[in-house]
Automatic annotation (TrEMBL):
Belongs to the IMPDH/GMPR family. One of its GO terms (biological process) is purine ribonucleoside salvage. This is Inosine-5'-monophosphate dehydrogenase. It comes from Saccharothrix australiensis. SUPFAM superfamilies: Inosine monophosphate dehydrogenase (IMPDH).
């Protein structure tokens, strides 16, 4: 018997559980406060962070997230000059009438995050991002529980001791402990559950997301850091389950890619307006950065790249504010069902129940499965009266 078989256990995804309704003092979901506190005094009115993907967060979405009380991480699949331009644009965006809920720095400007890597110019890129106004840095790598990722976190912690430092991705308690020990304030959890990710198919690696969040949240509490659940979120209910399992926030990519402010490419086909991801899944990081710098690629440049993602098209969903309003409203409803006025109380009270495949099927509105009936014809009845 292999060592892997000896340690075999069951992993759960969000669809494997439901939150158990409980007696509630909450009279209206409007009473529910979704605010969360991240390390280093970062307060978010909504526990939602937009993903640092090429087709999600640029300056426009980062600014929109801050206005709504969340946080956006500007992607790094571009030159340093391009990325710092996005950060500066978001940092100087007008907040407007949302200031009461907006995520702001001490000077009243939008909070903005930015991603950097673990190799090449990552130290210089991080310094340029901080100089351009980034309030948070994200050490972005597919496998965050690796020596070079841990070393990169330690270097950036030393260079920027006052900046909120996020690192990931990991899927185990050991990964959280090692990144926290290296200096990460927040650890991003999720290997393979993303909407366009194929890591679990290509590499056969990952941990079902609910189990990953549960394991990592326990380790984060012991290590004195926080976690972000990244991936696997398809509904507002999934956001609630991730927070109930111990995440301080969720990172959304696919659910925000259709927003007007996202970096996804607007497309129209047969009169239907959509937005499309592009580039990175097909080309990989190195080649994406080369194209961003204006270089031309040949077939040989991409021949050895093994993609761990797919290109995708997303329905247009309107403004980020409208999308977030729906998602946060669902979260507030979930918290009210558990009898919680705030996130801390929600995490204390929330209880999960595992569901069977029949239970998962029951979750869907079953009227959708019925064959439509012909429209009733009342003409004969009326004429015979």
């Amino acid at each position: 018997m292999t060592r892997a078989a000896d340690r075999l256990r069951t992993g759960l995804s969000f669809d494997d559980v439901l939150l158990v309704p409980q007696r509630s003092p909450v009279r209206s979901r409007a009473e529910v406060d979704t605010a969360v506190e991240l390390p280093r005094g970062v307060r978010l009115a909504i526990p939602v962070i937009s993903a640092n993907t090429q087709w999600c967060t640029g300056g426009a979405l980062a600014a929109a997230m801050a206005r709504c009380g969340g946080l956006g991480f500007v992607h790094r699949m571009q030159t340093v000059a391009q990325q710092t331009g996005h950060v500066a644009a978001a940092k100087h965006a007008v907040v407007g009438p949302d200031a009461a809920r907006a995520a702001l720095d001490r000077a009243g400007r939008p909070l903005v995050g930015a991603a950097t890597g673990v190799a090449g110019d990552f130290v210089e890129r991080a310094a340029a991002l901080v100089d351009s106004g980034a309030d948070a840095l994200l050490v972005d790598v597919a496998h965050g529980h690796s020596d070079h990722a841990i070393e990169a976190v330690a270097k950036l912690r030393s260079a920027h001791p006052d900046v909120l430092l996020v690192a990931g991705n990991v899927a185990t308690d050991e990964g959280v402990r090692d990144l926290a020990a290296a200096g990460a304030d927040v650890v991003k959890v999720g290997i393979g559950p993303g909407g366009v990710c194929t890591t679990r198919l290509v590499a056969g690696s990952g941990v079902p997301q609910l189990t990953a969040v549960l394991d990592c949240a326990e380790a984060a509490e012991e290590a004195g850091c926080a976690i972000i659940a990244d991936g696997g979120v398809r509904t507002a209910g999934d956001i609630a389950k991730a927070l109930a399992a111990g995440a301080s926030a969720v990172m959304l990519g696919s659910l925000l890619a259709g927003c007007d402010e996202s970096e996804a490419l607007p497309v129209e086909r047969d009169g239907v307006r959509s937005k499309s991801s592009r580039g990175f899944a097909t080309l990989g990081m190195a080649n994406t950065l080369r194209t961003a710098a204006g270089e031309r690629l040949t077939a040989a440049d991409v021949a050895d790249y093994v993609p761990e993602g797919v290109e995708a098209t997303f329905p247009r969903t309107g403004s980020a504010a409208a999308t977030l309003r729906q998602l946060v409203g669902g979260l507030q409803s979930a918290m009210s069902y558990s009898g919680a006025h705030d996130v801390a109380r929600f995490q204390e009270r929330a209880r999960f129940i595992r569901v069977t495949p029949a239970g998962r099927a029951e979750n869907r509105p079953h009227a959708l499965d019925r064959a439509p009936l012909p429209a009733p014809d009342y003409r004969g009845e009326v004429m015979n009266r």
